[in-house]
Amino acid sequence: MGIPLAIAFRLEEILASAVEKVANQDVFQSYGQILPLIDLYQIFGVGDRFNDQALATVAETLQIIIVSPYSELSVGLVVDRILDIVEEPLSIKGIPSRPGVLFCAVIQGQITEILDIETVIRMANPHLLQLATHG
Fold first, then answer.
1. Average pLDDT along the chain
2. CA angle 24, 27, 33 (to 5 degrees)
3. Which among 21, 20, 122 has a CA at the least distance from the CA of 70?
4. What pTM did the predictor assign?
5. Per-residue pLDDT at 57
6. Is the CB of residue 127 less than 8 Å from the CB of residue 135?
7. Of 17-21, 55-59, 62-66, 88-92, which range is least confident?
8. Please, are residues 120 and 106 in contact by the beta-carbon 8 Å criterion?
């Protein structure tokens, strides 16, 4: 999967034990902010990494991509791994493969799903978008 570089703010690696739950939202503290976390593992139907009992007992690290789709909203996307940062022209090569994907493109010779960040946020917690668009 790919994320447009224009909205990728920074990459972080955090300990799983740094994840806290506020109401129904997983969050973590980063540079003086409380950032909501969205686990792409859960969004795309693989499971729920944060409710895994083993997570609490293991000092697992999580790969986080901080994205800012709006100036008032930053979220952390939990990913399995970060492969590369690539700057190359993006041309639409295929239709969306599933909800949360804008389209498929060929990047470095590989078919890559390009994330629809707004839809991913809406799937995880629509309240976050209300804050961004009305805040």
1. 85
2. 135
3. 122
4. 0.84
5. 47
6. no
7. 55-59
8. no
Q: Are 123 and 60 in contact (CB under 8 A)?
A: no
Please report where in the chains the tokens 């224009």 appear, as a residue.
Answer: 6
Q: What does DSSP say about strands 101-107 and 110-115: parallel, antiparallel, or unpaired?
A: antiparallel
Task: Evaluate if residue 74 carries a pLDDT over 80.
Answer: yes
Domains annotated for the chain, with CATH where assigned, are 5-134 (2.40.50.180)
Is the separation of the CB atoms in 69 and 129 below 8 Å?
no
125, 19, 121, 124: which is closest to 67 by C-alpha? 121
Residue type, 67: V
Query: Are 3 and 115 in contact, with CB atoms under 8 Å apart?
Result: yes
Alpha helices for the chain (secondary structure H): 40-43, 53-57, 117-124, 126-134
Distances (CA, A) of 108 to 77, 87, 89: 23, 10, 11
Please compute the mean of the pLDDT values over residues 66-78 and round it to a whole number.
Answer: 91
* Among the listed residues 58, 57, 3, 64, the one whose alpha carbon sits nearest the alpha carbon of residue 33: 64
